[in-house]
Amino acid sequence: MARARRKLALAVAAAGLALAAPAAAQGLRTLHVEALAMHADRTHVQVGQVFHLAIHAHVGERVAALDELVVPNVGTMQLEGDERRVTASPSGTDVVETLTLEASAAGTYTFNAAYLDAIDARTGKPTRFSANPVRVVVDAPALSYAIGPTLRRIAGEVVLAGAAVAVLVVAAFALVLVRRRAPPPPPVATPTPPPAPAAVARTARDEVEDALRAYRSVPANGSLVRLRGALFAAAGAPPGATLRDALAATRDDRLRAALAAAERTAFGPAYVRDASSAELIDAAQAWLR
Amino acid sequence: MSRPRDVVDALQATIVGQREVVEALVLTLIAGGHVLLEGAPGVAKTLACRALAAAVGGVFRRVQFTPDLLPSDIVGTRIFDQRSGEFTTVLGPLFANVVLADEINRAPAKVQSALLEGMQERRATIGLQTHDLPAPFLVLATMNPYDADGTYPLPLAQLDRFLAKVVVAYPSLDEERAIVDRFGAGEPALRANAATLDDVLRWQRDAHQVFVDAKLRDYAVDLVRATRGAELVAHGASPRAALALVALARARAYLEERAYAVPDDVRDVAPAVLRHRISYDERIAIAGTDPEDVVRRIVAGVRAP
Questions:
Q1: What whole-number distance in Å separates Cα of residue A51 and Cα of residue A37?
Q2: Contact B259/A268, CB-based, under 8 Å?
Q3: pLDDT by residue (tens digit) across B291-305?
């Protein structure tokens, strides 16, 4: 009897290890992702006007941060602010990231869906959870003398109606969430405490991914220094090394392209920085893929 | 329109190996400075200078510095013409585009001083008349590290006038064999006119426009400050060294056809800029340390941005 029980325990442990191995290999957290949505408070703006792009994620776990959440590239929009709020609730954690953007040129902009990669707690498989893409139309600056009072009134009403619709959508979304959480959990015979998240060793790739995310959100000097440092470390170059050291340390062509782009962005004159910055983002993403 | 790389290629067609020396000569030409060359006899110092002058189509003059040399021997003098009954000015060998001051430390201080004044001011006074030196103007001074008896070592303040000091090493085994093959039947013709003097003046103007980020400026200053108080160093480099670092980093970026300098540019030129601007204390001889190692340690000890 005792031998049979020991065999059973070993089989369970082996099965557990087999399940855990791919998760560890991916370096992903196991999460119940219950909602991931993205919306803009205004989908029709004029050049120079400020609007907000909000990304809302709800996970069933209590987490201190949700670094896996990747916000979309804001392209040529001027990033005025980036605020991430994490709120714990009885049903888990809500993460709301609000990007404050200013449209700098007319056109139709489609923000790619925000996403987060995690092990889906329901299926145990690595999954990419994506929000919806958002389209924003930016008009050329309006000439106030050319717009009649009626047109302005109509525009005002459209904006108000849009805001009202947005409020209704958010309210409906919240209601759905509450209703989904409402049924009591099914009784479990042997309740077990949730497993503590395993400490996953961070790799150079993780560092580059995080640094790239920060740089895309705020492409400023500090985030550029961090991204360049992460790429140098990924190449195996020690701190204080130069580009030549880093290039000599790796044969990976994609990483070498990202390193060269980082050098151009860090030390090039201002007039080439926008182009080299876009090149850096593309090259770093290509390497991460 | 020629590029600086064309001059490098022209020099490499004549000189076997010595790539760093060749590049240093061209970098200094772009930066508008002067070079101190140190190496044993017969390592192609003079040939490199002649090849450089030929490659840019400039006038080349060589002056062998000796203890009995006088300032007028390099600057020029006024002589009395018996037929016209007037004094006429004869310009000295300093009036050339590329001047080779061979074994500069063998001439007394007043001659060195006349040369260095010309290097700095880019003009020379003969009698009561001041004459501008031709442009571009590059002085290549050699120093033989051996046979130091009876020489007049240049003081640190005068060495500081040279933008860079290049150490010309012995060639490798394969290079030495190639030298015998190439020069065994006589000296080959120099590759002339790879560029023009106007090209050189344009490079000098354009190199000034190369962008240097503030982080690189700080790196240059950090390198210079690291020489002061470093182990075995009696006197560190002056602020002029930081200017030289930035100027040569710009020239290197220009040679590489970049519109901006990067940390590699500063780090690569640092030994050439710093090595002659540092004086060592007596412990270096006792310890048997190579001064080049001290410079290498200083450069390696400063983190690149």
A1: 17
A2: yes
A3: 889 999 999 999 999
Strand order in the sheet with A115-120: A30-31, A115-120, A126-130
Contact between chains at B304 and A272 (C-beta distance less than 8 A):
no
Residue type at position B96: A
Nearest Cα to B112, choosing from B124, B121, B102, B104? B104
CA distance B214 to B261: 11
- pTM beyond 0.80: no
Does residue A243 belong to the interface with chain B, where contact is any CB pair within 8 Å? Answer: yes
Choose from B216, B246, B264, B302 for mutation: most chain A CBs within 10 A. Answer: B264
* B contact test, residue of A245, A267, A271, A276 with most B CBs within 10 A: A267
A179-208: per-residue pLDDT in tens?
Answer: 665 555 555 555 555 555 555 677 888 999
Predicted-assembly ipTM surpassing the 0.95 threshold: no
From residue B1, how far is each of A162, A190, B10, B193 by CA, in Å? 62, 84, 15, 12
Task: List CB contacts (< 8 A) between B216 and chain A.
Answer: 267
Residue of B nearest to A269 (CA): B211
Q: How far apart are CA B257 and CA A166, in angstroms?
A: 54
With CB atoms and an 8 Å threshold, state whether A240 touches B262. Answer: no
